[in-house]
Every structure is written in structure tokens, then in C-alpha cells.
Specification:
- This protein has helices at about 5-25, 35-45, 55-60, 90-105, 120-135, and strands at about 50, 75-80, 85-90, 150.
- Helix 2 (about 35-45) packs antiparallel against helix 4.
- A four-stranded mixed beta sheet has the order 2-3-1-4.
- The chain is an alpha+beta fold.
- Strand 2 and strand 3 (about 85-90) form a beta hairpin.
């Protein structure tokens, strides 16, 4: 008398379906709803300046273990008199930097980390750059100075957010 395996197959299939869903969702982020629009604005800029501390730039732009054309950052850095550095990014590099920040700020996962990324430094940098991009309503004139954001070590008052 053969034993039917169908009653045992249903729980196995359910577990496999749950594992597949978990693996597929584990690679995504909880990106802000305006993220795609910000990427498009960023890519359309000739240049963008970020003025920040060297430590914050290094922490938020680290590409160790990641590569690909959507993550390539071409940046020119210059030391400023006030102790900050100025990073000049092309529009495409700014879009790539936003992708990196989005991943690190809004829940990206990878094989080196258990759980989702929620880097405070990346959240801060993403939010500061997003505020400047959100304020751009038309293409800047090529003769105008590049849009810029200053992100220093100053305390942020949460009541002003």
C-alpha cells in the first residue's frame, strides 16, 4: 500500500514559498517615494557640491565589497579653510551616491550584515541632499554655480525636521 506524499508536500511547499519571498524582499530597500524623481534630477545636473567632514564622506561613500556601474563614484575633493572638504560630483555620480545612501539608509541588506542597514550617517546625508534636490524646480543655468549642500557635525534639532 503506497503512502501518499501530498499531505506532507503542502507544508514543504509553503516553507519554500516563504523562503523565496524572504530572499527576494531581503535585497530591496524601503526607499522614499520620491527616490526615483531625485535620481532623475541628480542625473540631469552638470555638477553638485557636497561640503562635509572627511570622516562623514568616507563613511557614507565607502564602496568596499560593492561594484557596478550604478555605484561608481567619480568625485573631486578639495580641502576648505573651515575644516570641511568639498566634494564635486557629476550628475551621474550624484545619482549613484544617492543609490548608495538609499541602500545604507533605508534598509538594504547584504551578506556581511545581519539585518537591514539603517546607518544614521547615511540617513543624514541622504536627507540633506534630498532637501536640495527637492528644491530644484527647473534645470539650473550652466553659468550658475552648482547646487550645494553643507553637512557638518552640527547638532540637528529634531523639532525642526
Amino acid at each position: 500500500m503506497p503512502i501518499s506524499s501530498s499531505p506532507r508536500r503542502a507544508p514543504v511547499l509553503a516553507v519554500l514559498a516563504l523562503l523565496a519571498a524572504a530572499l527576494l524582499s531581503g535585497c530591496s530597500t524601503d526607499s522614499p517615494s520620491q527616490h526615483s524623481e531625485r535620481l532623475q534630477k541628480a542625473a540631469g545636473l552638470q555638477a553638485f557640491h557636497v561640503e562635509t567632514t572627511k570622516d562623514l564622506w568616507e563613511k557614507t561613500s565607502d564602496q568596499t565589497g560593492r561594484s557596478g556601474p550604478d555605484l561608481e563614484l567619480k568625485a573631486k575633493t578639495k580641502q576648505l579653510d573651515n575644516g570641511l572638504i568639498q566634494i564635486e560630483l557629476t550628475g551621474v555620480s550624484l545619482a549613484n551616491y544617492l543609490r548608495v545612501l538609499d541602500y545604507m539608509a533605508h534598509g538594504g541588506t547584504d551578506s556581511k550584515n545581519i539585518g537591514r542597514h539603517r546607518s544614521a550617517e547615511s540617513i543624514r546625508m541622504y536627507d540633506e541632499i534630498a532637501g536640495v534636490l527637492d528644491g530644484i524646480t527647473k534645470r539650473p543655468d550652466p553659468k550658475d554655480p552648482p547646487p550645494r549642500v553643507v553637512v557638518d557635525d552640527a547638532f540637528i534639532d529634531p523639532k525642526n525636521k
